Amino acid sequence: MMQKRPQPLARDAMAYVLAGGRGSRLKELTDRRAKPAVYFGGKARIIDFALSNALNSGIRRIGVATQYKAHSLIRHLQRGWNFLRPERNESFDVLPASQRVSETQWYEGTADAVFQNIDIIEPYGPEYMVILAGDHIYKMDYELMLQQHVDSGADVTIGCMEVPRAEATGFGVMHVDATDEVIAFVEKPADPPGIPGNEDFALASMGIYVFHTKFLMDILRRDAGDPHSSRDFGKDIIPYIVSNGKAVAHRFARSCVRSDFESTPYWRDVGTLDAYWQANIDLTDIVPELDIYDKSWPIWTYSEITPPAKFVHDDEGRRGSAISSLVAGDCIISGSSLFKSLLFTGVRANSYSRLEGAVILPKVQIGRHARLTNVIIDHGVVIPEGLIVGEDPEMDARRFRRSEEGVCLITQPMIDKLGMTV
């Protein structure tokens, strides 16, 4: 076990979060917002996990690169992450693709999203850069990864997960030697290389990288001058360093933050409707795999000032109740029954309605007698009285976005096409 230094390395690091992704596999959920801005867990947004990890790790300089439909993301960052103060040597920069390098050039790739902002990063003088994806759900202490980076003398340290080889075909996979030095990087291999001594598993890249800042800037400038580069960390920067420098894998299990209730390292890419729905519904388990109640590693977010949730009516068939469910503030469960559901802020569920396996985003109104099973309901949707979803697959598929696993995404335009009385 590595010993922590008296002076945390995180104090001299900057976290740079790549949050420009569209997240097209989330379908209509990302029609109006970037994937990192999608709601998660009852109160937070997806990006809050990477940002909270950075803050909890002791990093006080943070930059967030945005691009696709960034308004809701930028608004969330301004409201929820405006507490870092320059007078305390802290900083929080939101960095849209502002055509700083060329008047016609947006961010061409993940590496370009850092390169275009070198003139903003360098004056802060961070010794280390922690490059993060802004669209994954996990808890991780980056200080431990920084320590390994320094101790190993690596040019880049790459965050990796151990996954069964059969499941690694959709990832970038690190082929490592016995010391975890990366000897080859393979993108979505048909036959992933196994881990030495544990050949049934492979090391999949998490899209988390640690560099010495000067080395990173030099390599980005070199890459920017290569006309054949796609300006991407996974496709260009990392393979170049593997071939010409020293890349080392950092295993997520070494720095994953776990409470007493979390038995295994937890990391999720909630990039499909099914994965997004499942990760939210998993939180309703008696002992969920992800402990969001762990006060030693809080998930920071914009927290609205709201009244408490309220449950009313106690008549047969009209009882405000919630079993194995998470209900945020300003929700009123008025004679509605909930089972294994997660409700964000400001939901109104009216009499005789029944929700099971429902992920309901903020400000949704559920009409009387509605029965909704295995659904995701987008922000602000008004569900008509008597609407039934989750009981007739063919009808569901005609009216809504139905996933491979039978989860229905419901948006207001879909409701409007039904022509039902609200």
From TrEMBL:
It catalyses: alpha-D-glucose 1-phosphate + ATP + H(+) = ADP-alpha-D-glucose + diphosphate. Pfam families: Hexapep_GlmU, NTP_transferase. The record marks Q67, W106 as: Could play a key role in the communication between the regulatory and the substrate sites. It is an enzyme of class 2 (transferase). GO terms for molecular function: ATP binding; glucose-1-phosphate adenylyltransferase activity. The keyword RNA-binding does not apply. CDD domains: ADP_Glucose_PP, LbH_G1P_AT_C. Residues 16-284 form the Nucleotidyl transferase domain. It comes from the Bacteria. HAMAP family: GlgC. Homotetramer. Involved in the biosynthesis of ADP-glucose, a building block required for the elongation reactions to produce glycogen. Catalyzes the reaction between ATP and alpha-D-glucose 1-phosphate (G1P) to produce pyrophosphate and ADP-Glc. This is Glucose-1-phosphate adenylyltransferase. It comes from Ciceribacter naphthalenivorans.
